[in-house]
Amino acid sequence: MTTAVPVRLHDPSRDASAWLPPLDIALRAARDTLTRHAQADIHDHGDMLEAATGLDYALRILVAALDAEAGR
Question: pTM score, two decimals?
Answer without folding.
Answer: 0.75
